[in-house]
Amino acid sequence: MEKTGNNNPELLKAVIDILQATLDEALTQKPVYTLRDILPYKTVAELKDLARLSKVAGFSKMKKAELVSALCQALPKPERVKAALSCLGQKQWDFFKKAAGKKQITDNFVFLGGFLLAQEFGLLQAFLNDGNIIFVVPQEIRRVFKDMVQNGTADLIERSILIDGYACAAVNLYGIISLDELAELFNQQNAEITTADELFSVLIQNIDENSDYCFWDEYLVHSDFEEGDFEGVAALEKAIHGKARYIPPKEEFLRYAEPDYYEPTPLTEKLEAFIMSSFAQNEMEALKITDEIVLTCMSEAPIKDVMSVFDKHGIVFQSKGQVEKLTPLLMDVWNNARIWSNKGHTPNEMTDKNGRPILRVLPGSGKKPGRNEPCPCGSGKKYKKCCGRND
Prior knowledge:
The chain has helices at about 5, 10-25, 35-40, 45-55, 65-75, 80-85, 90-100, 110-120, 140-150, 155-175, 180-190, 195-205, 230-240, 250-255, 265-280, 285-300, 305-310, 320-335; strands at about 25-30, 105, 125-130, 130-135, 175-180, 215, 220. By secondary structure, the protein is α+β, with helices and mostly antiparallel strands. Strands 1-3-4-2 form a 4-stranded mixed beta sheet. Strands 5-7-6 form a 3-stranded antiparallel beta sheet.
């Protein structure tokens, strides 16, 4: 493997920035191991955030010493630890369990997403000492968690987190799914089966203003539908009628719990390479643009929205030739994006009654437009003032 620093300075800088963000969240000192010792090193603002999350009465008027004392009492309460742990995602939960199993662990490669939420809940603390990032679960929290492991509470939390992961993945990949269908999907991939009733009882507790999903009639639906007062649910329900569902293996399916996940393919890599070479973009910027294009295609947005990604990044097409080279690349990505109206299948995977792929066609990919006609790139400008100005 080539060293990143030798050939990809932009990528190396991005990694350094990510690592720096992790370091910024660590206390720069030797680790300490109890809440009484850890909390005084936090700022008053951080302590008040913890107190708010822990529902400490009257915290807004407390001084620092009072906040530390109140939090030492509130944070280790079993019901509070259970509620905080239940808010973690799968990766955060796995990292917490790893850290809780020892007095301290050293991990110089964990990023913010792996631990920050747990730290914000007071479940663990990162330290930077002698060039290493050390994570400590306070002794009081470790004792409570040990009891949870022994009495089965930890198993219930782990199952709740798994169910939440399935719900997030399902709405990100499909848009809508009934609880019966979600239970069937879950049971295909897990030995310990679930029911629609269990799914409802677990998921209803997780719904807040930041949730990826909510309930609508018989469906679990993506929270984006709330913006349109759920009017889009009926249209999507009609579009998916009679179609088979795309169900990847468990590990791949759960990757969709991340809202911006998509499957990298040779087609997306080809688009990224074209953006780098044709528009003088560095590797990280080209990847960012490609990500936005793929996610826009997955949202089934019109082509003008896809093209607006280039506008957003200040990219100007220099000729009709650039557009002609870009168009088939976009068509390939567009027709191999997993979309809600196909129940997660790509257009390229869907066939008509004669077995032919049902592909989406990009507008403007046929004859050369007239000079006063709209430009096929989707900019909204006339062709002569856009891609045709050098013709």
